[in-house]
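In the design runs reported in the main text, the only information available to the sequence generator was the tokenized backbone. The following block is the verbatim input for one such run; it is reproduced so that readers can re-run the procedure and compare outputs position by position.
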């Protein structure tokens, strides 16, 4: 006998990237930053006292929200702190989507979106991405016709790394009847010369909500810390109604605040990743791979003609290199490769050269 809801029985759970059993394995499959977090993080950890763990944490993560607001030029009541970006996704669905109401996504996209929709018993309205992984012109109209009150777009796009401009996001938001969540998990790796910044949209679009995480750009994937940025009207119910009580712990709040304050350290790591991203892209092209230009910390590399992507992924794993393979349409001929350190990338490229 089972007691789970029928919708839960029917669904498939999220499948995370494989974790290596051997510590010598090079892990290029889950888009972690290959460089360490700020030294300020370790100073905070050394200063954690037993007394600070005996008490509940600050319920609203006020110090962190103040710091995030200062960084982005918004007010603290436009910020909500969450236990990883995935918690924000779940909160947003709970807050803005009635059970059974549809949720809109671009396809392909982050594979957790349909899982969270299934938990809510919500059908997914999926619109295929364009050939260059952009959003087709009819996206908003399709969502409105289907009665979608929440659309999810990851930007830069995952798993391709393609970037929608601020003007494109603004156009979509203006046409949508519901909330547009822009998942900016990889935004820190966008080329600075593009001057990409969605914060001005908050002054003109009260339906735009942005997801940020410290997992990628700040090298804190193990901390599970993120935050949402939006209009006061969107943030208020998340902050005061649907957020779990004490949802971010005392250690995480202090570590995240310290990391956010050390922008110089974080930006230096982003620049190193961008430099390696360009080098690896060129090297993969020389090996016969085709990858769209990426603004993330990964590349979606279509394997050379006549080669099998899943077989290549397995052969890499056998040689101590983990990359991500997706057995789904438009992706089953490609590998998603996280940008590592120069040494890690060199080993990947030399192993690929041998295998090919």
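Verbatim output:
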């Amino acid at each position: 006998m089972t007691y789970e809801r029928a919708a839960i029985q029917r669904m498939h759970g999220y499948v995370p990237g494989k974790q290596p059993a051997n510590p010598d394995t090079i892990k290029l499959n889950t888009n972690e930053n290959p460089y360490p977090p700020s030294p300020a993080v370790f100073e905070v950890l050394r200063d954690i006292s037993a007394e600070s763990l005996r008490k509940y944490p600050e319920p609203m993560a006020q110090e962190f929200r103040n710091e995030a607001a200062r960084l982005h030029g918004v007010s603290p009541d436009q910020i909500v702190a969450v236990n990883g970006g995935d918690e924000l996704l779940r909160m947003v669905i709970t807050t803005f989507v009635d059970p059974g109401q549809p949720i809109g996504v671009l396809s392909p996209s982050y594979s957790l979106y349909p899982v969270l929709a299934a938990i809510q018993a919500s059908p997914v309205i999926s619109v295929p991405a364009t050939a260059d992984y952009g959003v087709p012109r009819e996206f908003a109209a399709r969502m409105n016709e289907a009665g979608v009150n929440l659309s999810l777009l990851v930007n830069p796009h995952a798993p391709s790394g393609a970037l929608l401009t601020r003007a494109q996001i603004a156009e979509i938001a203006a046409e949508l009847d519901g909330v547009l969540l822009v998942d900016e998990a990889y935004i820190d790796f966008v080329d600075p010369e593009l001057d990409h910044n969605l914060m001005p949209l908050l002054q003109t679009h009260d339906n735009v909500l942005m997801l940020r995480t410290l997992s990628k750009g700040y090298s804190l994937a193990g901390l599970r810390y993120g935050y949402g940025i939006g209009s006061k009207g969107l943030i208020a119910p998340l902050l005061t109604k649907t957020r779990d009580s004490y949802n971010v712990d005392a250690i995480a709040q202090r570590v995240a605040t310290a990391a956010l304050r050390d922008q110089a350290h974080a930006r230096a790591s982003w620049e190193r990743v961008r430099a390696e991203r360009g080098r690896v892209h060129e090297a993969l092209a020389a090996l016969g791979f085709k990858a769209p230009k990426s603004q993330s910390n990964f590349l979606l590399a279509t394997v050379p003609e006549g080669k099998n992507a899943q077989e290549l992924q397995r052969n890499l794993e056998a040689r101590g290199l983990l990359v991500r393979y997706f057995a789904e349409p438009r992706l089953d001929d490609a590998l998603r490769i996280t940008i590592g350190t120069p040494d890690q990338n060199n080993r990947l490229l030399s192993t690929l050269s041998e295998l090919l």
